[in-house]
Amino acid sequence: xxxxxxxxxxxxxxxxxxxxxxxxxxxxxxxxxxxxxxxxxxxxxxxxxxxxxxxxxxxxxxxxxxxxxxxxxxxxx
Length: 77
Description:
The chain is an all-alpha fold. The protein is about 75% helix and about 0% strand. It has helices spanning about 1-25, 30-40, 50-65, 70-75. The longest helix is centred in the N-terminal third of the chain and has 25 residues, at about 1-25. The relative contact order is 0.05.
């Protein structure tokens, strides 16, 4: 009898932990999951080309904002 109670407790706890893990990972995205299941395709906010251009602009501004001269980078390394 004691082994049955212990087994039930262990497996109930494992099932509860698995359910909580699934719920915590699915619940933030449930609206997105339902839209995709219905057949509404996802649209990206910006095309990839615009994202790449924006990223290049960020990199250029980062290097252009540095106080060192371009030759100083080679000397420091």
